[in-house]
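Hello again,

I reread your note about wanting to compare the complex against the isolated chains. To keep things tidy I'm splitting this into two emails, and this first one only covers the full assembly. Below are the input lines as submitted, including protein chains and any nucleic acid or small-molecule components. They are followed by the predicted structure of everything together. The single-chain runs will come separately.
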Amino acid sequence: MKMFYALPMLGAVMISSSLCLSGIAAATDTETAMSDPSNWASQAGDYSNHRHSTLDQINADNVAGLQVAWTMSTGVLRGHEGSPLVIGNTMYIHTPFPNNVYAINLADQTYKWKYEPKQDATVIPVMCCDTVNRGLAFGDGKIFLQQADTTLVALDANTGKVVWTVKNGDPKIGETNTNAPHVFGRVVLTGISGGEFGVHGRMQAYDIATGKLLWKAWSTGPDDQLLVDPKKTMTWTNGKMAPIGKDSSLKTWKGDQWKIGGGTTWGWYAYDPKLNLVYYGSGNPSTWNPNQRPGDNKWSMTIFARDLNTGMAKWVYQMTPHDEWDYDGVNEMVLADVPMNGKTIPALVHFDRNGFGYTMNRVTGELLVAQKFDPNVNWATNVDMKTGRPQVNPKFSPGTTGPDVDVKDICPAALGSKDEQPSSYDPKSGLMFVPTNHVCMTYEPFQIEYTAGQPYVGATLTMYPTPNSHGGMGNFIAWDPAAGKIVWSKAERFSVWSGALTTDGGIAFYGTLEGYLKAVSLKDGKELWKFKTPSGIIGNVFTYVYNGKQYVGVYSGIGGWAGIGMAAGLSEGHEGLGAVGGYKDLAKYTTLGGSLFVFGLPDAAASRTASTGVTPTANPIQ
Amino acid sequence: MRRLESVGMKYKLMVMAVILGPTVLLTAHAADTVDGAAQTTRPPYTVVDGDKVDQKTLDGWKTWRALACERCHGAEQEGLVGPSLVNSLKTLTKEEFHTTVINGRPDKGMPPWGASAMMQKNWEGLYAYLKGRSDGAIKPGHLHPLDSQ
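Full-complex prediction:
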């Protein structure tokens, strides 16, 4: 295939960094801010993607009395993913395209400053199908915004003035951004979106002070562009770690298809300061027609562990070789210390779109656990623990049945048993709390030609609730990452597309597509409280303290891929299955919106907990 | 509200499909006027059994799926982020349709397809396909040539 675009094929950019190893360096302002649970200073609250708060003023005993404290319109009616940040007395909120940023004084909820970028509207069509943005990052006295048009902007946190900007892609060839930038140490990491436009996925690292490019690591291509060492970069091979060898990616693609091979990087990254390793996943190989791209298509669908300073990969693991279903591997990488066989393992836990929950040794990259976190997953029977490869069921393999054939009842659907909506880790119980999808699909691949800047999909899909199940399209589950087992599962009518929050108050919060914010018990999933916001929730729940009082907040504004349910009816073939919770019902519950909701206990209840430390009895306000 | 309407529309379509049955032959001739009374416009497509269509309409459907229109407008044209084309094609003229697909509506997220050779070649077929979907004459999903089994 002829190449149409002129990406700088200069190889990976490696500029020697003058950074100290983080273990030696003093704590950054990001780290200081994150260490105070009064703040919500990064999208996950920490480097490890725990999304857990040690706050317990709001707890299982009093959450029933939670009330709206204040609300704010974002002024934009599209899907609201991510969450605000809170640092000291300021909250920073963001919007979907046009990606406005507002700094709000928590004392009186007035605007301290506004940043309203002017972006070319032609970026919207190449973001199809929604213009989400997963939020801001904080560090070095700056707020970082990753605009849809691929511009990474550093704003002065006090004034909102632009300190520096860099461009990391070209929307004219389908490159856009939806991911949150991530600040790790003195480095700002950002990825790229556009797996449906045949973009060439990579991760970029910028110096936090100047915006200078530190390194760029491609997902597919020659070794020097991948930032791998064929002899030292390891992967799980025949039951042990072994070097990936020379040309590990090139050998798994036909011709130069790797140049338009996808492997985008729009998810949630994590960082271990002790190991100085950053973890993230790559997305689907382009196109969605597997028949057109024989081979394993490495390193799409892969977990990468890279050195923060150099970008060099220490280990990689491809979850879904030769993808046939669009099971992007970008979901959050959760770093947790997991007790296994009498030892504490420094683990990485990952819930993949493909329906398997993985537990790996994050130091070495060894595969420890790979089990289905939705029992209805059927595209693979299991993951072979020796080879690390999924055992694909040919009945649900569009690559086996060939183009122009409708493959029915593949579970999960392309949006995965879980998409970007992040899980939460509760260190006390050692369990993960996971918002999931419970959706299946038919998949018909077809031949497609690549044209720069135009969709490069090549498959037609329909999605519907998992047949012969509870009829709903989602579950909220508790997961044991050591055993690889579901501890409890709470059925939801629609996909749970909102990031979870757990707290030391013994509760988990999550939002639903109907618009409810819910609090459930960590012990058994019992619903303790809910509140109906104006629009469906696809944002992530966050918490903070202001003036001694704990607050919990979330964006309300449906959209994103989850919004696919807003109008999509059941396909003819599935009308008869008696599914009561089809997406078609969603329009009965909600419509587009764009607002921030902040909740707190009534002042009496809050002060009682705060002053005595004694948990009051439930306050039946509602 | 559009979304609510499109769901309602789906039900109507299903009802219509039941009434018409699977073997209705809806061709240019079939749609001609009865007794030379009201001058009904001929539909721009020919369809048999709901899923066998003339070559031009078939090329229109192939353009629909190659350009991934369903990502915004829904697998059954019922509307997602983009509007329901089952509804839109009831009011949109052929000229307006042409302007929209070639120039797009970038502020609303509709790409300009003027640079697509496939769209330039097949836009009339695409119009025919969507008109057939809007009329309820063409079924959602895979289409086949008229002479296929």
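For quick reference: The CA atoms of residues 26 and 96 of chain B lie 25 Å apart.

B.
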